[in-house]
Amino acid sequence: MSEEKQRKTFAIISHPDAGKTTLTEKVLLLGGSIRSAGTVKGKKSGQFATSDWMDIEKQRGISVTSSVMQLEYENVQINILDTPGHQDFSEDTYRTLTAVDTAVMVIDSVKGIEAQTLKLFKVCRMRGIPILTFINKLDREGKEPLDLLAEIEETLEMDTYPMNWPIGTGKRLKGIYNLSDDTVDVFSEEAEERQIVPYSEVESLETYEREALEEDKMLLEEAGNDFSLEQIQAGEMTPVFFGSALANFGVQSFLDQFVQLAAPPKPRKASGRWISPDQQQFSGFIFKIQANMNPNHRDRIAFLRVCSGSFERGMEVTLSRTGKKMKMNQSHSFFASDRETVNRAMPGDIVGLYDSGNFQVGDTLIDRGEKIKYEEMPQFPPEQFAKVTAKNAMKHKQYHKGIEQLVQEGTIQLYKTPYFEDYILGAVGELQFQVFEHRMKQEYNVDLEFVHMSHELARWVTKGDVSDLVSDHRKMLVNDQQGRAVLLFENDFALRWFQDKNPEIELSTGWEIL
Ligand code: G4P
């Protein structure tokens, strides 16, 4: 793809079943990236049972190509990063969000904002990632549009600006009114019969429909917010689109506006200063590692987000963490159904690098000049913990290797107890343990023994000495991968009790907002 084109790099986040896959398919279709819908994913990540997930693991070909998708639209190169829908993998989604410039939030109009995904929306909000909202399933009887806007404003504490407005919903869906140019996308079951018509010329509306729309327009004008691109790109206001991904209605207008509203690559913080995308020095960071692309080889692909300068195939780069120099001969960009060799990539682009075990999630790569390091990926606080050992002590070599590699990939978090160095795994949800167990067995031939613990909260010790702390079932002292002291608590009560007794110790969630 051309290097002069503007880049718009985004991820879609949604609650499982809200319509993320369907919307992605329709967007790709409009961009001409896939010939027919239905090829984006083998399975819907939101709905799988454990066994399905294992199948997905086996069919890496499918899940990997859908990790990053590219399309060109209106002279803009759009990079779409996929995120797993299942809440047990929200840490994965969280890391992916560090690599995008915009997030698209898909909301089911029947359900509104759902609790499980609220956390992720809040992450975007707190990090100032611009959010575009697509309220989906307009072909169903959903919540009132005004109520949906109010819900977004209240739960995310951000302003909304409706870009279009539904005329009827469900069976009575007549169209969507476009606020910017006073036109209506007239709905019809038959896609060929749909047209965009100036509002005054729409003939199909009943008087009561017109009146309802007029009333809503007036309300929005009087009580609504003023449109501000600046606020949108600062993540303080979300433009809201209504539509139906399944019926492919409203998706075109969404995409047309998306290319205007989504943020271009912005300066990013590394080693305490801001690195501009147009700085000459190449730099980027690894936000995701995916292993097992080919079950016969333990090859992995590291996903690099280019932040400044340009990436060129064959170039020599330095890994900031170790100072190691490497030649980048095998690099790929991803299309919906193909992998292509990438020769040159610009800020905002995602490149897949073959990795024989050099990279860790969060690593910075540079070409020459000053060694900078992009800010550490904040850890997502795990909520479940388990002690883990190998069933067969003879396999300790594979056991350690497997754990080390899977932790580098970010599959799971690893902690160690002081002195004895027992391994404690931390996960956001049970499924993460199961995937870990499965992969240890399949890829490293190690059977694991898990002892689930009663602790549910992790807090990083930011001030004070806890080395004398006696661990018990209420609280436990462990060290994270970087050797930092972390306290695991059984529940909120145990945490508060500890804080009351030890006011000199300062604790942090490891993640700004929880
Ligand atoms: P996800 O990736 O967010 O999990 O959602 P996905 O696109 O897989 O959509 C979840 C379900 O919602 C699918 O139905 C899909 O067809 C449906 N859906 C998506 N967009 C719309 C829409 O605009 N209107 C309506 N009415 N439904 C929509 P399913 O029955 O679970 O799967 P399928 O067998 O239809 O694929």
Automatic annotation (TrEMBL):
Entry keyword Protein biosynthesis: yes
Protein name: Peptide chain release factor 3
Residues given in the record as GTP binding sites: 14-21, 82-86, 136-139
Domain Tr-type G: 5-266
Location within or outside the cell: Cytoplasm
Recorded family membership: Belongs to the TRAFAC class translation factor GTPase superfamily. Classic translation factor GTPase family. PrfC subfamily.
Encoding gene, per UniProt annotation: prfC
Chief place where the protein resides: cytoplasm
Function description: Increases the formation of ribosomal termination complexes and stimulates activities of RF-1 and RF-2. It binds guanine nucleotides and has strong preference for UGA stop codons. It may interact directly with the ribosome. The stimulation of RF-1 and RF-2 is significantly reduced by GTP and GDP, but not by GMP.
Domain of life the protein comes from: Bacteria
PANTHER family, alphabetized: PEPTIDE CHAIN RELEASE FACTOR RF3 (PTHR43556)
Record flagged with keyword Protein biosynthesis: yes
Species annotation: Salisediminibacterium halotolerans
Pfam families: EF-G_D2, GTP_EFTU, RF3_C
GO molecular function list: GTP binding; GTPase activity; translation release factor activity, codon nonspecific; translation release factor activity, codon specific
Listed GO biological process terms: regulation of translational termination
Gene Ontology cellular component annotations, sorted alphabetically: cytosol
Keywords assigned by UniProt, alphabetized: Cytoplasm, GTP-binding, Nucleotide-binding, Protein biosynthesis
Gene3D superfamilies: P-loop containing nucleotide triphosphate hydrolases, Peptide chain release factor 3, domain III, Translation factors
